[in-house]
Amino acid sequence: DFLCISLVNGFIQLRYNLGDKTVILQTFQKVHANGNTWHSLKAGRAGNEGYLDLDGINITQKATPGMNALDTHTDFFVGGVSSLNLVNSMAVENEPTSFTGCIREIVINNREMKLTVTDPKGGANVGDCDGTVCGYTVCKNNGTCQVENSGFSCSCPQEWTGNTCEQSIHCSQNRCGSQALSKFIGNSYIKYTDPYYGKRDLQHSRISLNFTTNQTEGLIVWMGKSEDEDNDFLAIGLANGKLKVVINLGERISVPLTHSKYSTCCDERWHFVTVVQNQTCVKVYLDEELILFEDIDPQRKYTALNYGGICYFGGFEIGRKVNIVTTGLFQKEFIGKIKDVVLFQDSKKIQLMNAEGYNIYNGNYGN
């Protein structure tokens, strides 16, 4: 089996074989070989139906009966391979040659590959295409990079600030007090990176916070990277007006715990939630009353919450819908206020407004 994208006589080709026959798709137009034109390329397959899109012009290969799984179990190569004689003769039209040019922003199965010196497993004869310290996406959120004697500087769009335009002005201008009270108005999120993650005992996790809302649906917090379906997570939110807690310690098995005794979560009053994970035992407290207590896996197959040091509050980055990222566990972003977030047994509350975020306001002002 193989899947290969190559440049052939100026055209882009996608070739793949799932075990029965080789499918070949080729773009209608040639790429510009002037060395200064960027092209956007999307290619892949759903089952045995392939698609190839160059700069918005799409070609598809209709599925026919046959194999529909790509069984490779090998490394993923970009720009060439360690030995060209390893390339299947059907994967390319002519003799295989390495790519000469520039490649940026590689996304595989919705996960971006970091093209840095340290992240790839290996490589050879690869350099910085830009040739300056600016490079691609050094300045976030459509910021413009300028080369300076001391390095670089970013000119940021109106809504963003920080050295690399990474921080929303709503977060930078509104420093919260000791409560770290944040107001979420919809299409909002905060992404917090836990600086103490490396020292945590992940078999004994804990998070507590206060929230208030008038909504019956919403994701309050998601402890986990949420980059792919294998990532561990612990989530707290609202579903049908009830408090819902979901935990996944591994093997893609999500265990939802829903408090159905009474609905108190959308009455615009402050509610205090604490979730404690002791290996596979989970306790949930609402307003200091123990409302849920369950051993989610008596076999103790997975006992640690490997959340990657990432916590999302209220939702996810722009363009990432809550119902899609959480695979339907929660339906929408949180609208309301969150304060007094404490991880594990830390003595200090998280300063939410100092973290990366969007559409977040200081809840101490106004209501």
From TrEMBL:
<dbReference type="Pfam" id="PF02210">
    <property type="entry name" value="Laminin_G_2"/>
</dbReference>
<keyword id="KW-0245">EGF-like domain</keyword>
<dbReference type="InterPro" id="IPR013320">
    <property type="entry name" value="ConA-like_dom_sf"/>
</dbReference>
<feature type="domain" description="EGF-like">
    <location>
        <begin position="130"/>
        <end position="166"/>
    </location>
</feature>
<feature type="domain" description="Laminin G">
    <location>
        <begin position="1"/>
        <end position="129"/>
    </location>
</feature>
<dbReference type="InterPro" id="IPR001791">
    <property type="entry name" value="Laminin_G"/>
</dbReference>
<dbReference type="InterPro" id="IPR050372">
    <property type="entry name" value="Neurexin-related_CASP"/>
</dbReference>
<feature type="disulfide bond">
    <location>
        <begin position="156"/>
        <end position="165"/>
    </location>
</feature>
<dbReference type="Pfam" id="PF00008">
    <property type="entry name" value="EGF"/>
</dbReference>
<protein>
    <submittedName>
        <fullName>EYS protein</fullName>
    </submittedName>
</protein>
<feature type="domain" description="Laminin G">
    <location>
        <begin position="179"/>
        <end position="367"/>
    </location>
</feature>
<keyword id="KW-1015">Disulfide bond</keyword>
<dbReference type="InterPro" id="IPR000742">
    <property type="entry name" value="EGF"/>
</dbReference>
<feature type="disulfide bond">
    <location>
        <begin position="102"/>
        <end position="129"/>
    </location>
</feature>
